[in-house]
């Protein structure tokens, strides 16, 4: 029974929240005249002492005492005696754990948001530095049109900013205090739930006692936000794996974020990127784990819900680690401008620019321009050269009305420079967007 029932090995991480919750509860009980001032003083002093012991690593957690709530209460009894027995008036472990866990998840949301913003800052700074570094943009992982490295990084800044927004939204919705819902039905004592809610930084007390002790959608929302962020992190991680492969050679990771091989001395492996890519497995699994635990539970509390913490801690720990590693890799990495431009040149990435030129200059229908361009690309392929290195005569063999002016659009730099539409890849757009983000992400904002 002890093996399956005890949760102390996991919920000891709620110690700080549990002590804060108990202190607020005892203060409220004293203010409402439910316990005496002297008893409250003894409780406050004892709880501070316990916080110190836990901080110093001097607290003996006991499995026989099941969970963090009983461990702390038992120690309080040892320290202050009878008043400790009055602390649990007008509350239950059900509202206690719901409150502790909400506070823990609330802080996790704040930390996730801060971690995402640090990553966004690193990405925006690199984007600013490489706003004009031409690289091939891909669809189907085939060379499509030239973009810039900065533009590519800013795509991730947009994704991570939505992730940060999801954590902020979840935090707002979860910020109602369950304490005082007691076991499930509230209490007959004249408690002041507004006081405990305010003391613990909640916006208001949760309005329905059954909901207060039995809902875990605040954790589910947080795990959803983490799972979605994990998919974004894994996509960026995958790009780092591709870009650092010698077959791409777009980016060099720092020595600090590369590992060697025990047998192949030439290797610089992107282990951290691969692990960030893999951590998505844990984060997605944790969400699924808690969804399945919560599905079909009747109101109010059931012990099933004790499993909420392992899933949540696992996901939040993985997210923090993945964010820190990704931020470090982005800060340190060195893009290779020449290799990226070379790849863009090699992939006929300005074919769309040629087609657009035919439409604009010769008033050709786009479908026909697409066909003519296909023939020009085939010729360049045959001559093993890029579009801008073909001669005018070569192109005129396919479409005699083509003029010298066409060369103004065939170079990859000209192509990206022309993408000035809102949200487009032009370096001037990228510069402006990077500056906007860096300004928004200043720590004081
Ligand atoms: N350790 C329990 C949990 O995490 C605390 C609540 C226990 N409540 C109860 N009625 N047994 O869910």
Give structural notes.
The chain is mostly helical and 445 residues long. 63% of the residues lie in helices and 5% in strands. It is built from 19 helices and 6 strands. The strands form 3 sheets. It has a two-stranded antiparallel ribbon with strand order 1-2. Strand 1 and strand 2 (142-148) form a beta hairpin. Helix 7 packs antiparallel against helix 10. Arginine binds at residues 7, 11, 67, 93-94, 97, 301, 303, 305-306.
List keywords for this structure.
single chain; 445 residues; mainly alpha; two-stranded antiparallel sheet; two-stranded parallel ribbon; 19 helices; 63% helix; 5% strand; elongated; binds arginine
Q: Uncertain regions: pLDDT < 50 for 5+ in a row?
A: none
Helix content: 55-70%
What profile does the largest beta sheet have? 2 strands, antiparallel
| Basic shape | elongated
Given the helix and strand composition, which structural class is it?
A: mainly alpha
Ligands present: arginine
End-to-end distance? 51 Å
Percent of residues in beta strands = under 5%
Which strand order spans the largest sheet, edge to edge or round the barrel?
1-2
Order of helices and strands: HHHHHHEEHEHEHHEHHEHHHHHHH
Radius of gyration: 30 Å
Q: Whole-number average pLDDT?
A: 96
Tell me the number of helical segments per DSSP (H or I, 4 or more residues long).
Answer: 19
- What is the strand tally? 6
